[in-house]
Amino acid sequence: MNHHHAILCLLIVAAVCSAPAGAVILEVTVTGVVEEVRPSENLIVASADATVGQEYGNETVRTVYEPLEPTVMIECAPPDPAALGVISAGDAVALTLLGGMNGPCIAIGKLQETASGDPVITDLVGDPAAMPVPLVGEYALTYEAEPDCANATGTVAPALSVNVSLYAEGMEVFEKTLLPGESFTWNGRNDGSAVNVTFIGGEASSASCPGSEGIVGPQAVATFIVAVTPPIGSDLTVPETTATPTAAPGLLALSGVAALAGAVLLLRRG
């Protein structure tokens, strides 16, 4: 086992030891190229050629890509049908799958490449907490979901609302509470960039609900639509392949398991 894989294994062990009991379903994040989009079947077919993991150093997170040999064909329904209007055949994408390569897709991001060769996401549909590939323009998104405890089932409950925090270059620049179906747009930087966030709906952890102590089950998953207008002069291109091993600078770790979300096989925050 080389040094890189040893670091990933240690991070996974640390996540298992520190994660809430409810966070039991593994997530796999891959990158690849869309082969087909089938709107009538609500299906996206992609050829995955790399896995995505994260490393730590000096209180920062590095997103790391490891080639998949051979490539893996993935067929999945997107987290929301809106993805079918964003993703097209030939696009480079990142996919986060719940429970393994054959699991449901809980996040899909459209990939572009910066002038320095770093993959970034311009459009995301699904759970941003499950996507380790960074947004373009050094933006980042976190959220806390309020559970409907009266309708909780095991470790999850319907999300009544989400409190969304938007970060730019590592600094929190905006915060807003959204109900299902609500959205906001932020364009406070003087570089032509903008971020539009819509909360579709989903689940919240029931950990704060009365009587939830000790319950084991799946983690909560919420669905968003995120569209980022890149800064002027970003000079983005479509990656020819996503399989070249690279280490792109990530963002400051905000919490133990949340910062690890989307590693090759990793537990998410419940």
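(the above was protein one; protein two follows)
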Amino acid sequence: MSKRTLTVSFLTAGLTAGILATAVGPAAAQGNPLPSGGNAFFLSGALNTTGVAQKVYAYGNVGDQVYYGDWFGTGEDVPMVRRANIYYVNDPDGKAIVFAYGNPDDEVLVGNWDGEGADLNGDGDATDTVFGVDEADAKTDSLAVRRGNHFFVKNDSFTTGKADSEFFYGDAGDTVLVGNWDGEFSASTPAVDHNGNGVMDKGTPAYAADVTPATDTGWDANGNGSYLDAGDRQPGTGVDNNGDGDFTDGASPAVPADVPAKPGKGDTIMIQRGNQFFVKNAITTGIADYTFYFGDRGDAVLVGDWATQPTPRVGSTAAKPPADADGADQLAIRRGNIYHLSTELEAARADKKNPVASRVFAFGEVNDAVFVAKLASPAVDAYGDDIADDAGTTGDDESVITGDGFGVRR
């Protein structure tokens, strides 16, 4: 496995306004393998106002099957090479990691399936700081195997072993997209079994001690001595506070209900059929939570969590600084080298409407092999200047902007 850094800056072909009369290059949706190509990768970063690749490097061999993911929770997607069922990736310190998973002919997807951190140094817990990252907070990507409409999820990328969970969704021939469509990340919680007989008890309230008929002196609510009025209880009746019919139980404290284990929430699966999309916000067997339409049948679709781009001052409208991506993935339609980014899918679901294009721009060349990768960018204004220099711009205290950007493989 070779890894080297290219020492010169490359244009990702610049931003061009026209569509060239050549074949449209392939595109890889987030979570899927990159289109086949060379071993040079050009990453735009979350912000790109210049058309110059923010990061350029080579990895692996020409023609390798490559996946991008944030394997170490650093906030940056890096390449992993797959050869049959053997995977190769370098950690942030440059150490090569090699592991096996699944079968050589498996279809493999990438996502942060459990919404949790990871044991990055393999010491048996996830409480350390590794690669400058708090393991408990590291949102790490891992692999899932798809066999037809059966998905096998592994929450730890670097160990050989069986899947942590599995589910069925869609049909065997469906196009599958991976993303966090509602922006919710939550860690798993363990089951709580209060009495040790399995997580099944609904809990009970506290009860006072029973009163046997032999010792029951009755209850005269209004104190008139009759014991026959509403609310009274005649002597010798007895009190069965917990309702079990024996009048012999002592006082008992409340027992809280058992709590079943709750899986973490991270990335999930979306099915694409033409220009109709079927969203499921949990990696469980079942039907779609909602559906929508976007783009045209045959469009190339990319998935990413896009940062808000800066805008310049126009007339009396003040310039606006960029903003971090919000954690919820959106779609991008690619037509040639023109990209149409969707509005938030969760907002469209809440409004019971289809998402629409929120931003349209040109990137690279028509025949580029394009993918999506997370890479933070320096916080700059619409002219590429550090926003710390924009004294009149509010919200300019960020030094970097996080989010996904486009990448080109050549």
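Reviewer note on protein two: Residues 190-261 form one domain.
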